[in-house]
Amino acid sequence: MKKLLSYFRGLLNISLFILSSAILYSCTADSPEQERLDYSSVPIIDITKKLEISESENLILSNPVRFYATENNHLLIAERSSPGIHQFNEKGEYIEQIARSGRGPGELSGWYYPHFNGSILAASNNPGYIISVYQQESDGIYHHTKNLNVEYPGEFKDIKGLDPVSFYLLENKSTQQLQAPDEFTEGYIHLVEALDDSLVVTDSIISLQHHSDYIYEFPSGGIREYDLPYRFSDVFKSIPNGKTLIARPDNQVIRIRNSDFKVEHELHLNISEKPVSENSLEFHLAGYDSETRKNMEELIRENKPAFMDVFLDDQNRFWLWTDETEAGNEYIILSYDGEPLGKLVLPNAQKITMVQKDQFYVLNKPENDAPSAIVYSFDL
């Protein structure tokens, strides 16, 4: 009798196991994958041009490379053709030249790289590994306060903060090969802090991947690099309160890290793939000879990246630069949790440089016309 009971208990356990496995499989099989996001139906937002700066009595823009807004809505424009950084008030009226070309303290070389984080403005001179720091004083104008020697080679990537004065440098750990290049090169972000009049590395933070450019080798032995469209390069930006934004288009993820570089927010996207069309290739590669164009096209993937740049505004909304075609530059605005809020398409000569206080700031660089800096307001 005991053997018979044990036999039936065994049958019951096996039956329950099979039943639970079947239910689990059924639930798993019926669970849909994360829904793909298609931004084609996202509504266009209303935008209004508030002001445009192309020239003043003191400045004619020729090759502007940066456009920032301060907390009090003053405007900072960095010009490269005649190296200098210029300050305007909120109405677009010229105030002062903050930095000019030269070799003295706070002066700029021809290839300088400026960054701004709301508190301080800084520019690196290349070559020389010197970072010049400018701070806003009681008159509201940014003045040169110090020069810092960089004791570690690397590209000046962004500003971390003021207390202590600290920056991010990008050191390339791999270089692009001329023959059979890797698709990506890798670099490491280092945190450097001011020690007396020098900057020293205090931490190595994270690696970034850069989608390789097209390199042409001249018969004489020289080389020239060409930017390619639709690259899957990682995005790294310093944002307020010592935080950083890191976005990786290759796996469609955006992370916000706190001042200790711990992940504070993570957003995984599942954006529908958008093929690179013949029209898109023609728009970007027209004018190159057939052999160069063929070599370039081989380095461009079949599908466009989910985004090519990302901004976080002061309302914790993400602005994704998602496309660049003859029709214009497309931007999608998402909530902090990834909900689509709106879309805008700017002329292809215009690219966003900053978003703040329901305004976004654009550098306008048309091919056959004078460049300008534009402030738009928007309504979401």
Detail the topology: elements first, then pairings:
Blueprint: H1 2-30, E1 46-53, E2 64-69, E3 75-79, E4 84-88, E5 94-100, E6 112-116, E7 120-125, E8 130-136, E9 142-150, E10 155-162, E11 165-172, E12 184-195, E13 198-211, E14 214-217, E15 223-226, E16 235-239, E17 243-248, E18 253-257, E19 263-268, H2 278-285, H3 290-298, E20 309-312, E21 318-325, E22 328-334, E23 340-346, E24 350-356, E25 359-364, E26 372-379
Parallel strand pairs: 9-13
Antiparallel strand pairs: 1-26, 2-3, 3-4, 4-5, 6-7, 7-8, 8-9, 10-11, 11-12, 12-13, 14-15, 16-17, 17-18, 18-19, 20-21, 21-22, 22-23, 24-25, 25-26
Protein name: 6-bladed beta-propeller
Organism: Fodinibius halophilus
Signal peptide: 1-26
Structural description of this entry:
The protein is mainly beta and 380 residues long. The protein has a single domain, classed as TolB, C-terminal domain (Neuraminidase). It is 12% helix and 47% strand. It has three helices and 26 strands. The strands form six sheets. The chain has an eight-stranded mixed beta sheet with strand order 6-7-8-9-13-12-11-10, with no helix packed on it. It has a four-stranded antiparallel beta sheet with strand order 1-26-25-24, with no helix packed on it. Strands 2-3-4-5 form a four-stranded antiparallel beta sheet, with no helix packed on it. A hairpin with a 5-residue loop joins strand 14 and strand 15. The longest helix has 29 residues. It is globular, with a radius of gyration of 26 Å. The N terminus is likely disordered. This is 6-bladed beta-propeller. It comes from Fodinibius halophilus. Keywords: Signal.
